[in-house]
Every structure is written in structure tokens, then in C-alpha cells.
């Protein structure tokens, strides 16, 4: 039972007495009527409330504008100054003056008399009224995703809600919304072929569904779909009229100034080139026409200029030239707005999105009128390009954010599955909020599905900044409890956090290791660059994750199984399947070169993974009786990563027998496993046959400090003539080496025991040291950000930290770490940050590093534009720099890290000695 709500299910025969402060909307017999003021927006909100009441009770609620129809119980909905609400307030002595001049707030109060009870929802404005209705429906137990994710409300026997006096908080961000983008593979074909075939495109029927979803998410701003496949929003006059009825603020993307969809609306044959320098009058008239058509619309006008689509402006090839064109174009646009709308330009909401080459022009000295909102953007991969300087923060227009959870473009698209980590959204949007970007937040949601949760999370943060105080996993668990109930919510949250964690290291769409613009072919993944063990670990993690998601499915109630497939099972199985297809083919190739009989089994498993993705996608598009047909495309843009690969078959090796591989390496008498005395460790041993022949093996002996995961087994067709075993060393005296016997051959497992190191500090393990960030003491220059990064938390240098010259590095307290090595060798200290950008252009991304009390050396993590280095960084969510080590002595060492700039996000520190196995992701902390 949700707080403040009394909901008695049909299975409950007797409902306990309602608390005195509750009000019954349905007592099992009578159902509240809905009375609303005479405005289109409130009428739509009243209709939504009535539909939700019917969904919950099975009864039709009377909806009327006449208070005389109220009866014994009604919900009265309207703006505070409407005749209906004003009359109710006056008759009951209710003072609503606290709503005067407020943005999107409401008052909810229960008015009782001997003849009737009224639940009054009075809004400060149209959207404040709507949020009052939405909060009531949430309290009744209706999900924001009741239609869009098939979370149908469940019938109740009785329904009561909080009867106290409620004054809502103002939204934390003024304009909060979504951008429908890259809709070619989901939203548009679904609308055209399934939901609205009569229109044959995204039209009013689809937009009505989207607007209602936005209401339920308390979003107030839309950037409409704008790709070439979609009809322009203003192409159908019903679209802007509908937006007006729903009180939706209409804006347009960074590439669509003055409400114009250039891709579909600019005809070069009739209008000439889209070039401000050569066709100024043509562009001016084009903009003027749309402003005139949009008169009376609640909108935010995008100012500025780019190319016809998402491309640089025509006729200007340098940042300085673009700066000058933008200055003149914005001046002309503001004059058009003022003249056409008959009001001063500074009273008309306008925004300039500082995105791609526009940022270069802005940094070249573009002066933007003070009242225009500066909308900063991320780099398309979740990292904000910059935020307001102290001077920019004083602008009357304020600042906003344009953020992506879906993207088409270089270095690689991610349009299929929504995998942006909630922890990253919290960290980046938290820094934006803290530094004053509170005017407009727009989320690029792609096709809406499958980004349901990430959309909810982003908009929850925008509406109520108090959400930042909750950890992402807690918010996710609460959200799942709202959708599925508390019994399974915790496990669902854990599954999806693991899903986001795995994708943070490498998104499924990036597993082909190619890039786009230009499109490059697939290549071997970096997970299989050496011995294949890193690929095996990732495969094991995805197998475990998929097994958890599948094991939970039968526990999900029957009326939520479609929703579970959409929100959990499809994304988990899809991400797992693509990783399995890629990595198992890589391992098949590696193992074939080693002469393993298992190579063909890995190829077969890769094929099965591909077939599961195909089958799951077909199932998705058949869910809910075909409701989502054409919504899910498993291969957007048909990029190489999605290509169905060739599945090779290798001939059997001519060599017979059984072989052991240590950590994936080829076995021979000279090789050994390495452990450190006193330091418990696990190591992987793989037994494999060279030919497709059944073989038996046994553990002949092992020293007292060793344990093998099993003592005997068989290599058979079922396991691919291969068994992966775990050898555990407990840290004690090593004793005799383990010895295996297989197919009549003795296989000694040589274990080299390094001398013990200092206890209590991270120590060398297989030629490397993984340093836990948490081992540093609390530090006033740094803050810990939970549930993000490779170790479950990251450290961020304080946002108000001043940038320092390296000569003053030691004036700030360092992060101090101790670690130990067992031998004197060369190597490197590898420092890995998240690939954030400087907080402002005046800041940098520098970290001072000192090893063993040596001089402070500066590692600079800044990247240039869309350089090759930046591309690799965002594809891996990591930015690495190295401090070379020459003949570091064995024993204990000290490492100090100094924050030289604000907003640096430290993910991990690793020490790699000569001979360490190459790896792609983070080293495990406990290997």
C-alpha cells in the first residue's frame, strides 16, 4: 500500500476502516464524479482522471462542468481563477492566494459539508491543474506507463486517498521535456503501420498519446519528431492545436530555428539555397511565415542557424565566420518575433542550443542577447560539454541542458537499447543543476521505447531536484515497485543496475569495434586481445544476468508479463545476446588457432545467441496483441555490428589428447600460475581436448593450500570437450603443485609463489595492482559519487575547486594510496577518469600524480574536439593516462593524486608491471 493511499484489492473481502484523514473516491458502491472548469486543458485532465477511475473500479465516473452535478462526492478540478474554483473556494472559505503568480503549482484540499464532500484541485495555471490530477492518479496507483509499457491499472474494491491539505512544490526546472528523434526505426513505422495507419505517419493521434505520457511524467515541453520520414509537426494544423489543448510548450531542436522543420519544409527549388549570406530575404520570409502560424502557441523559439538538417551552416567555414552569421541571424530572428507577435523580443521565450559547431562559434566570441536561454548539450554520449561561467550564470535567460539517451552519429550510434547509466545521468545532471542550469532540460529519447525508465528518471530529477538525494538503485527499485509491486522490485532493480554496469564498460551497439561516419567494418573485440579470459569473464557476467532475469519472469504476475518483457527481459537478453554472439565468435577463432575441439561449439553458441535476438524481437513486436508491431528494430541503420556474421566450422585437429590452459594461455612445462604468499587468490584452469573425443580426467594431488572446484570430470560433446575449473589458493604454505591426469597424461599445474608483501594494502597480482578508490581517506577536495564507474563509486573533485598551477598542487590535499609489489621491474601507473569535459572553458582536466614522494607530474585528460582519442574514450566510458615507472623497487609504495581542476571524475587507478596481460576493462579488485 502506497503512503497516503488506501487500495483494497478484489481478493480482499473486508477492507479495514479508512483513517480519518482519508477521503473515499470509491466505497464499493458510490464513485466520485469529476467536475471541471470550462477549459480544453482541464477537460482533458478530467477525462484522464475519469478513465483512470474506470480502469480501477470498472465504473464510469460522471464528468461535468456544472457543480450541481456533484452529488455526495466529487473531485473539482480547475485553475484557481476559474469561475468554478473561485466559487467553491468562496463558498467554503478557502484562500487560494498562495497560488498567485506561481509556476505549475496546485492546492488540493477536502471540503466536507453535511450534504457532500468535495476534493478540490486548484491549479495556479493550466499545468499546475494537470499536475494536481496526475499526482492524484499516481496516488490511486496508476502508473505513468499504464499505456506505453502495458502497466494496466488493477481493479480495486475500494479506493481512498489522502484527505489532508496539500500545496505542491514548484518544479525545480522550469521547462522539462523530450525530443522525439531518430524515429525512423521505431516510433514512425509503428505509428504509420500500427497505431495510426489512417494518417500513415506520426500525427495527431500519436501526439495525443505522447502528450498524455508527458503529462503523467510532468513534462511540459516537446521537441517534435523531425527526421525526413516524419510529417512536419506544423504540417498538420491539428498538431499545434492539440499541443495548445494539452498545454504543451512546443520547441524545436538545435537544427530547427523559428519552429521550422527544414528537412521537410525547405524546398531549394522554390526557395533557393539555405544560405543566410546569399538568401537572407528568403530565410527571413520563411521564418516569418512560421512565427505568424504559431501565434498564440505556448512555445520556446529556437534561434540561431545550422544547416538544413543536423549539419553546419552553409557558406561559413570557420568559427569566426559562423559567429558573425549567427549574430546577424539572431538579430533578424528577434526582430521577426517582436514584429510578428507584437511584443518585445525579451518577453518571448527563446533558446540557443550550444551544440556541435555552434559551440565553436560561441567560444569565438558570439554575443547572445541576455534573455535568450543558453542550452548546453552533452557530447552525445552523456558527458556535458560545458556549463555556465560565473558571468554567464547571471544572464536573465538562464541556462538549460540538451541530453541524450539515444544517438545517431559518430563515433557510433546507440539507437537499439537504452543503456545510459542512471549514475551518469545523476552525476552530470546534478552538476548542471548545482551550477545553475535550471531553465530548460530536454532529453533526446529516440523512439521513447525502450527508454522508459531513463526517461522517467531524467524527468523526475528535473521536476524535483530532491531526487538527486536518492541513489539510482533506490529510485529504480521504487519505480519497479510502482510498476510490479514490492515483492520483485528489489531483484528487478539489481538486475537492471547490473545491466547498466555491463553496458557502461561497453554498450552492446559498440561491440563490433567499428565506427560510423564513415562506417567501418567490424573487428576483433578488445576483450579477446590476448588469452580470452576477459571475454570469458564478460560472458559469465551476462550469462548470470540473463539467468536472473529469466528466473524472475515466472514470479511476475500474468498481467505484467508483457511489461516485464519490455522493461527488463528484452533489454537484458538483447544485450547479452549481442555480447554472446560477438565474444563467442572471437573465442571460437582464438580456440581454433589453439587447436581446441571446443571452437565449433563456441561458433554454434554464437549462432544461437543471434537467433535468440531475432526471436525476442519478433516477440516484442507481437506483445499485447500486436500493439507494438514495428516498434522494435534489432538493427537500426543496418550497421555492421548488427550484420548476421559468417559462422565458420573448423576441421578437427590432427593432434590427440588433453591439454591444460592457464588463464587461457597455452600450456607447456615452462609456464606457471603466479600467486603471492599470504594473499588468497583464484585462478582459472581450462582442460580441453583437441579432438571430438570423450576424455576423463582426475585431480591426482594438490598441496594443502590449494582447492580445485571439482576433483574429476569428463570432456564430452555436451561441454564442448572443455571444462573450466577454478583453482583456489588460501594464502597458506603452498606445498606441492596440483597435478591432473587426463587421457593417461600427467598435467602438473606449476604454481609460482611470490614472496609475501605488506598486509592490508593492495598487492601485486599477476603482474598488476588494482587499487580500490575507497581506500583513500575522506578528502575535502573530493566527493564520492555512488553507483557509478567500474568500482561501484567514483571520486569527483569538488565543482567549486579553483583551477591550480602545478606549482601550487601541494596546497590542496591529495588522495593518498599505498600499494605493494613483489619484484623490481619497469611498468606504469594507469589513471582512468570518466571522459567528462572541463566545467567551463576557463577550467581544465588536469590531475597531479606523485609516486613515492617524487615530483608532482601533470596528467592532462583534455581531448580536442571529436578527435580519435575522444572517440575511443566515449565508446569505453574511460579516459586513461599513464605515468611510466623505471625499475620500481619491490615493497611498499605511496601514490598521491592532486586535483588541479574542478569536476574531474576519477574511476580507477591500476599499476601494470612488465609482463601484465593486456586488458580492455577494469582489473577485478579481488582476483
Can you tell me about this structure?
The chain is an alpha/beta fold and 927 residues long. Helices cover 29% and strands 22% of the residues. Strands 12-11-10-17-16-15-14-13 form an 8-stranded parallel sheet. Strands 4-3-5-7-6-9 form a 6-stranded mixed sheet, with helices on both faces. Helix 5 runs parallel beside helix 6, helix 15 runs antiparallel to helix 16 (533-552) and helix 17 (561-593) runs antiparallel to helix 18 (599-626). The radius of gyration is 31 Å and the shape is globular. The model is unreliable at 1-20 (pLDDT under 50).
| Unreliable sequence segments | 1-20
SS elements, strand count: 37
Note the beta-strand portion: 15-25%
Number of helices: 19
Keywords:
22% strand, alpha/beta, 5 domains, Chitobiase, domain 2, disordered N terminus, eight-stranded parallel β-sheet, six-stranded mixed β-sheet, 927 residues, Methane Monooxygenase Hydroxylase, Chain G, domain 1
